[in-house]
Amino acid sequence: MAHKHISSHDHFFRAAMAEPKVVNDFFQAHLPTKIQEIISWNSIQLKKESYVDDQLKLQITDMLYAANFDNKPGYIYLLVEHQSTADKLMPFRLLKYMLAIQENHLKQNKEKKLALIYPLIFYTGARSTNHVTDIFELFGEQQELAKEIFLKPYHLIDLTKLTDEDLKQYLWSGVMAKSMKHIYDTDIVPCLKNMLNELQTIEKQDGMSYIYTILSYLVNTGDTENESEFIETIKLGFSEQTGDNVMTIAQRFREEGLTEGRMEGIIEGQTRGKVETLRSIVKNLMGRNADINEIIAITGLSLHEINELKKTDTDF
Q: Which helix (H) or strand (E) holds 103?
């Protein structure tokens, strides 16, 4: 008998697995005992959705069954594989399909809880094949480490639960974290003063660009009840060039009402006045021989955007 096209296998299996008695019989033969003990057999229903990507549709048929596990909604995901050559990435593909099922489940249910999904792969190829069934085998020599970190609770860094002393242990990332922790304070000056020693150390370690990034963030995003104290802290706490450059950008931004959101895409359609302001800032900084990385950090512009501004002004 000649070998039939894969679609004949697909049609036959789908027709058979549409019969409730076949479904129950099949799952009683292949589901683990723990799942069988909690599944509500009369709740099993075939769903119409397919989650297999186009690349594998000729080799794989997928069938999704909704079922209740301990009276909670869940699914049995059945993949029927016809190909005789093992797909080494099948555990990864299966994970993607299961995530798509979860996403669809969340969209259809107001209660934001994930559903239990039990996956099976039913192999019907002509020759025996050694399938990789454990996704951790795909990590190669790093699989033991992967077992410790993959699909485990993620590492949450909650700034509200970290003290300034905790953050002070790490100089460069610590000032970033403290800036973002205190940016919602009614007055950002105490935060600036608290970080002054660290910022001065960073300045001495050739961290001028980073200093501009931090101070510009505090100037343009934070609030202060005493602007003169903020300015005085910067002028007294840093070198004259650093202080002047930061206050230049702060003054120009306040005059024009520029915000970070408005700066995005400045070259692609911002108003003439705002473009002129940025051009003036860039020109001022370049006149002080500021490094290009410092200019990028202060203005938030990319090198391409700075070059575009320069093209439109012959005085550069």
A: helix 90-108
